[in-house]
Amino acid sequence: MKIKPIVLKLGGSVITDKNKVATANKDAIKRLANEIAQSKVTYLILVHGGGSFGHPIAKKYNLSEGYTNPSQVIGFSETHLAMTKLNSFVIDALIKHNVNAVVVQPSSCVVTKAGRIKRMELKPINRMLKMGLVPVLYGDAVLDSENGFSILSGDQLVSSLAIHFDASKIIIGGDVDGICTADPKSSPSANLISYVTLEELKAKKYEIEGSKATDVTGGMLGKIHELIPAIAHNIPALLVNASKPWRVYEALSGEEVIGTIIECG
Ligand code: IP8
Question: I need a surface site. Which of 57, 160, 165, 218 has the fewest CB within 10 A?
Answer without folding.
Answer: 218
